[in-house]
Amino acid sequence: MRWSGIEIEKYNRVCSELTALLALLIAAVLSYVPSVSAQASLAAGEIDQLVYMREEEKLARDVYQVLAEATQLPVFTTIAESEQRHMDAVLRMLNQFGITDPVGQNPPGVFSDAGLQSLYDQLSAQGSAGSLEALDVAIIIESTDIADLQTAIDTTTSTALVRVYSNLLRGSQNHLSAFTNNLIALGGTSPGGQGSTPVDPGTAVYEPISQTLYIPAIDIEDDSGQIIVYDILFRLVETLPVTFELVAINETSKSSNIAHASYDRESSTFILPRLLVGALAIDSVSEIEYTASFGLVQNTDGQILFGLNEITRIN
């Protein structure tokens, strides 16, 4: 079989676009730690925020681990893993600036900060009462994280910290949307207020620190021809080729909309009309948008994998 010139040109373009995205994903994970020469000393308040953030991310991880066992809801296991990566990102910042790690060798459930210790004890007990209570607790945690991260972003002069905090913020917004949609799917009520719907339903977000892709609204046709809107959480499992594992899917109360992501059952492909990649730097790079499509590559043994088919920059 011989390819036509048009087919070769299309193949080369797709390869170029996939390579560009892969470079972005890898750069997003690796490049947010500044070189020593680029660092400026931190003010006392910035140090306090960074130290607190390390244990605040630990609180989220530890509580979610407790709630994963108590409720058996997969979303807690997945997001607990994301929180571990958030903890690691903050630890790298502490090490980069020569600041003592408040976590040290503390096991899960043990904190240096007395206030966080008390909060962990309270939220773990409160969330273990049931699935709805657990999701309510998760929403409290993520809403608090969002507020604290925004304050940290607004009050630091360090571009390195802004970049890390911005990615953590985007991750917490994704987590909050996922927990809220899980709550609604189980018959609970969205708490409303700050951060209850932080993600534009038409925008999928890849958050590089936790290596998760969150789609807040995807229209899928069921066997009867009715369009159901779901939210989906994927985890990156391979970078070459770019492959994501489906880790959570929930029916939402949203109505179908042309701006949403969509799924074609015949080709087992989903299309993202708008994809954002987490902050790579404090400049226009973090505002680059893409359209993308992913195709099913595996659906066996309880594991569902989608591979990146095509990616195109749209701005």
Number of helices: 6
Categorize the overall geometry: globular
Q: Which percent range describes the beta-strand content?
A: 15-25%
Radius of gyration: 20 Å
What is the CATH architecture descriptor of the largest domain?
Up-down Bundle
Overall pLDDT metric: 83
- The CATH topology of the largest domain, please? Ferritin
Spell out the helices and strands N to C: HHHHHHEEEEEEEE
- The span between the termini is 36 Å
Count up the domains.
2
Which bin fits the share of residues in helices? 40-55%
Class of secondary structure makeup: alpha+beta
Please provide a written account of the structure.
With 315 residues, the chain is of the alpha+beta class. The protein folds into 2 domains: 141 residues, no CATH class; 150 residues, Ferritin (Up-down Bundle), CATH 1.20.1260.10. It contains 6 helices and 8 strands. Strands 1, 2, 3, 4, 5, 6, 7 and 8 form an 8-stranded mixed beta sheet that branches. Strand 1 and strand 2 form a beta hairpin. The protein is globular and about 55 Å long. The two termini are 36 Å apart. About 8% of the residues have low confidence.
Quick overview:
This protein is of the alpha+beta class and 315 residues long. It has six helices and eight strands, in the order H-H-H-H-H-H-E-E-E-E-E-E-E-E. The longest helix is centred in the first third of the chain and has 28 residues, at 44-71.
Keywords:
alpha+beta; 8 strands; 2 domains; Ferritin
Topology:
Blueprint: H1 5-30, H2 44-71, H3 74-96, H4 114-127, H5 131-155, H6 159-185, E1 204-207, E2 212-221, E3 227-239, E4 242-251, E5 261-264, E6 269-277, E7 289-300, E8 303-313
Parallel strand pairs: 1-6, 2-5
Antiparallel strand pairs: 1-2, 2-3, 3-4, 4-8, 5-6, 6-7, 7-8
Helix pairs in contact: 2-3, 2-4, 2-5, 3-6, 4-5, 5-6
